[in-house]
Specification:
By secondary structure, the chain is α/β, with parallel strands linked by helices. It has twelve helices and 16 strands. The strands form three sheets. It has an eight-stranded mixed beta sheet, with helices on both faces.
Length: 399
């Protein structure tokens, strides 16, 4: 089933919605304009149920098929933007200083609205679709909060799918893999407390700059000497703050950074090694070292059966040659991971063409990707909830 004419017609309208959303970027859970726009479109579309205020500004809308009862499949889009000053130069540029949709969540939200419009018109499925519009993907864990507030139980969701655009993948192509597709993410802050003094009398001090430098070097051995070479971890120190003068050794130095890992046991090992390294160097130097380590997101892990089903749904609209079923994982993190911990499902990459990279101030979502996203969502629903296929689909198998 290649992309149908009606999806192409809807896509033109959806592009206008996307550009409007791009102009009104909002952050984290505080999305009043975005949520109001989404709710208004869902009401015009004619959803059977619309529940707002989940995780503050999240929305779940329900559509029932015309072929009788069946499971509920969840489709998720993220709505929040980033605290970045836009430099893309597009006509529909952000109206808010230091805020922009630099990750394409405006496109994801618009595509799910487009899929809702098509599915509300056709309703060519059994069971129901839960349209999940999520706040606070960018570091706020909005997916975790929506799960904690009971969306699975309230709407009886059997499985869940999401799509994310990726610059560099050609338009009209999809990429997925079973198992880990994106890394888990953690943040650490390390404070080295020494004893400051005159730079000409270093022997009278406990120099936190030297200890901090040793910590930075030692942390690089986690990937090279502590983790199995077959596994993957990235430990990056990204912030250093200490000292105010050329001739004064400071009392303290602060470091900050991130850990990314595709497997939970690797992330656990990395945290232990960070703490051990800091404790050991503190003991050796006479300094004290405080470590604040926070796991932000777990790895995003696709259920193998759902991943192959999602690949089949994409191949149905773009052809098998345009679906990579074993794409390499990305070391970026994604809070759809919380939903995949709670439910079987899959996270798919959608080509954005040769655009600027994600989180770049020059990025803009490619509106030519919209029909492929709408087509993918609708293909998923109509294949998973096809009345004659429910007995063998991964939806019914997961119940």
């Amino acid at each position: 089933m290649p992309i149908c004419d009606r999806v192409l017609e809807i896509a033109a309208e959806v592009a206008d919605w996307r550009r409007h959303l791009h102009q009104i970027p909002e952050l984290q859970f505080d999305l009043p304009e975005t949520a109001a726009f989404v709710e208004q479109k869902l009401r015009v579309i004619g959803c059977d149920e619309i529940v707002t205020g989940i995780a503050q500004t999240g929305i779940v809308a329900i559509l029932h098929g015309r072929h009788g009862p069946g499971p509920t499949i969840g489709l998720r889009a993220d709505m929040d933007a980033l605290p970045t000053q836009e430099q893309s130069g597009v006509v529909h540029t952000s109206r808010s200083p230091n805020r922009m949709h630099a990750c394409g969540h405006d496109g994801h939200t618009a595509m799910l609205l487009g899929a809702a419009k098509y599915l509300a018109e056709t309703r060519n499925f059994a069971g129901s679709v839960a349209l999940i519009f999520q706040p606070a993907e960018e570091g706020g864990g909005g997916g975790r909060v929506m799960i904690a507030e009971g969306i699975i139980e309230r709407f009886n969701i059997a499985q869940v799918f999401a799509v994310h655009n990726i610059p560099g993948i050609p338009l009209g192509q999809f990429a997925i893999r079973p198992g880990p597709i994106m890394a888990g993410g953690a943040r650490f802050s390390i404070t080295v407390n020494g004893r400051g003094g005159h730079a000409a009398l270093p022997h009278e001090t406990i120099d936190p700059v030297i200890v901090a430098a040793q910590i930075i070097s030692a942390l690089q051995t986690i990937a090279s000497r502590s983790v199995d070479p077959i596994d993957t971890v990235a430990v990056s120190v990204t912030k250093i703050n200490g000292g105010t003068a050329f001739n004064v050794i400071p009392d303290s130095v602060e470091l900050g950074g991130t850990v990314r890992a595709l497997q939970v046991h690797v992330a656990t090992l990395a945290e232990k090694r960070i703490r051990d390294i800091c404790a050991g160097l503190a003991a050796a130097s006479g300094a004290t070292v405080d470590v604040d380590y926070r796991q932000i997101y777990p790895p995003t892990v696709n259920n193998p059966q759902e991943a192959m089903f999602a690949a089949d749904a994409a191949a149905a609209i773009v052809g098998e040659c345009n679906v990579a079923r074993a794409t390499p994982p990305l070391m970026a993190a994604e809070d759809f991971s919380f939903m995949l911990e709670a439910l079987p499902g899959a996270f798919m990459f959608l080509g954005n063409g040769p655009s600027a990279g994600l989180h770049s101030p020059n990025y803009d979502f490619n509106d030519n990707a919209i029909p492929f996203g709408i087509g993918y969502f609708t293909s998923l629903v109509e294949r998973a909830l096809r009345p004659t296929m429910l007995a063998t689909s991964p939806v019914s198998a997961s119940l």
